[in-house]
Amino acid sequence: MQVIVFTLGNEKYALDTKLVHGIEKVMSITRVPTAPYYIKGLVNLRGNIISILDLKAYLNIEYVKEEENIIIVEIDDERIGLLVDNVHEVVDIQNDMIERISESSGYIKGVINFKDYIVTLLEGEMLLNS
Amino acid sequence: MDMSQYFDIFLEESHENLQNLNEGILLLEKNPQDKETINSIFRVAHTLKGMAGSMGFSDIAELTHRMENILDKFRNDELEVTTDVITLLFKCLDTLEIMIDNIQNDKNEHVDLQEIISLIECIESEKTKEGPGIKKDIFELELNEYDKNIIKQAQDKNYNVLKADITLYSDCILKSARAFLVYKALEDIGEIIKTIPTIEELEQEKFNNSFSIIFITQKSSDDVKKIIEGISEIESVNIQEISKRKNDEAAAEVAVAVRENDKVQESRREEEKSFKKVHQSVRVDLERLDKFMNLVGELVIHRTRLEQISSSHKLVDLHETLEQVGRITSDLQDLVMKIRMLPIERVFNRFPRMVRDLSQELNKDIELVIKGEDTELDRTVIDEIGEPLVHLIRNSADHGIEPSDERLKKGKPSKGTIRLIAYQEGNKAVIRVEDDGRGLDVEKIKSKAQSLGIDTEGMSDSDIKNLIFMNGFSTRDKVTDISGRGVGMDVVKTKISSLGGTIDVISEIGKGTSFVIRLPLTLSIIQALLVKVGGETFAISLGFIDRVININTNEIKKTNNREVIIYRGNVIPLVRVARRLNLVEDDNDEKFVVIVNVGERTVGLLVDSLFGQQEVVIKSMGKILQNLKEYVGATILGDGFVTLILDVAALV
């Protein structure tokens, strides 16, 4: 499978590229007062209004630096943007590189072992379900 | 053949036909003797049967066929139109509706027809009056428009159109095989238009000894006769020529058996002709219409953007052209809006049936009066408004209208009336549901409110009456099947505010109750006022706004622990938008109050500053945020920024 690797705080995370629709630079985001804390707001993506999910807030990850990228994903026919620190690369991985972890929190599919470093693989479909 | 492309049409037309049947049968109940009504119901049922049959839904065809049988008995005076039979027919319609819905929703559930069919059979056998000497053996032959057309064309090309009446030996064993041979022989020499009885019935041997075939051929009638006589076990062959000149009469004559029906068809044909002249229409997929709407929306956004650029660069040439573009986009907008509009009749037309059922169920005499069914509303509203109206009408029938004896005691006519009225008022559509029943009892609502812990001190009667829209509020002690579970009214209100509308209740005890629903005519493109609150920009639909005034914060008064302002001697409750949205107001003391009318209420919204008026296209905020009730949606402004549109009805 192919995954997109990005950073959140001090760690690396990955997402199946099947869900990914595009990568954008951070643009001006309209705040939505009264929205849940993990919703950063709305953006105008070429005429479409898209909700931006603050992935760090959502996954409880410590804030280190300003986000640079938005990954546009399509889940259940709905496009949303995931706010991430920055996107690194798109890589092909073998299924046996994914190590399942026991204390899974639902969003995490497993850990990819790249020998020099490890990446947490997120379960994209779970993100919108809560 | 790929049926899928006809599928949607089939579904849509079936729903229409069912609705027509419903209306027709209601009418029939009122005028049981009206043959014209029976005929028109018959025609609709026939169409439905034909369509279902050709789409392969044999269950539906079967049930409609049974209904036709009953209708046929009405027509021939073999069966009396009684409430029982009408109720049974309605039951058939309900079953048909379930079956069609199942098809639509791709459900494979099988609806069991056994029960209803046995009911029909029961009625057919029991109640059959001794008809005036009708022998079912005389075949009825109906040539439809299409057949007649073919005949005419054939005759124009000098083909012979013949009708062969064939009688088999009475001891013939394989009747259907013989019939098939005749059919085959005639098919070899020409084209068969129609067989009587139908080819299926011939195959299933559902005929006695004779049958007829109408066909087109180049051979003479004598030749044909010889060919048919060449087949064994045939007693007699009688060939009639359907002559050219007398085409219409002849066709009519052939169609005979069907009594007046032909006349009806003629008149219908004329009707259709004249109808077609005035009104030509195309069915369009709603999705395409939505796309069209979206594109026009985009156009509006970019026009606004261009206007901003042009005004900031002060280019005269561009400005002039833009004005033109502006006019065209407005026209385009109006047009697409009109295309999306449908008469509210589509919603209203199911209510006569519902009220009839309700009045039977509740054992009350209720009449439904409908006015203004041609009032047009956006398709989205039409789709959604039915459910709240059902609630309101049920409420009126159940709680409002009193039983006949009680009404007589009060000096009212024994028959209760529910009025359903629609009309346009400015850029709003108004729907009123009125009854002449007992009216709302303010005291009862008060005590109910107190038992729920609501302080009614200082509330006006009209405020108290509006409490019935609160969650869990039902003053009816007894819960009935029809309504009274206390879930109705708040659902109604929520639904209507989600459509950007308002609902109010006006009621006088003993005289009746009116529910007044106000809805925006269109939903997607609105004029909006842009305001700034706590550093953020929001849009407010102009439809709600009465006026805007500027005030200094020290003019805000407090009464009863609520903030108000006094404007021209009126006390207007104030809502601080910033606080409602958990934002921080800016420190400036000079602020603005947007005075809005929500239904019968007037409220002031406190905002920091104004930004001007603009046309905005309402877009959905997406699944994650759709539960936020403070906003009706979001929009993209000319400068490309996303702005939230406040839901005024939810804020006040």
From TrEMBL, chain A:
One of its GO terms (biological process) is chemotaxis. One of its GO terms (cellular component) is cytosol. It comes from the Bacteria. Residues 1-130 form the CheW-like domain. SUPFAM superfamilies: CheW-like (SSF50341). InterPro entries: CheW, CheW-like_dom_sf, CheW-lke_dom. Pfam families: CheW (PF01584). PANTHER family: CHEMOTAXIS PROTEIN CHEW (PTHR22617:SF23), CHEMOTAXIS SENSOR HISTIDINE KINASE-RELATED (PTHR22617). This is Purine-binding chemotaxis protein CheW. It comes from Fonticella tunisiensis.
Automatic annotation (TrEMBL), chain B:
This is Chemotaxis protein CheA. Its EC number is 2.7.13.3. Residues 1-103 form the HPt domain. It is an enzyme of class 2 (transferase). The modification Phosphohistidine is found at residue 46. Keywords: ATP-binding, Chemotaxis, Kinase, Nucleotide-binding, Phosphoprotein, Transferase, Two-component regulatory system. GO terms for molecular function: ATP binding; phosphorelay sensor kinase activity. One of its GO terms (biological process) is chemotaxis. The keyword ATP-binding applies. It comes from the Bacteria. Residues 277-523 form the Histidine kinase domain. SMART domains: CheW, H-kinase_dim, HATPase_c, HPT. Residues 525-652 form the CheW-like domain. Signal peptide: none annotated. It comes from Fonticella tunisiensis. GO terms for cellular component: cytoplasm. InterPro entries: Bact_Chemotaxis_CheA, CheA-like_dim, CheA-like_homodim_sf, CheA-like_P2_sf, CheA_P2-bd, CheW-like_dom_sf, CheW-lke_dom, CheY-binding_CheA. It catalyses: ATP + protein L-histidine = ADP + protein N-phospho-L-histidine.
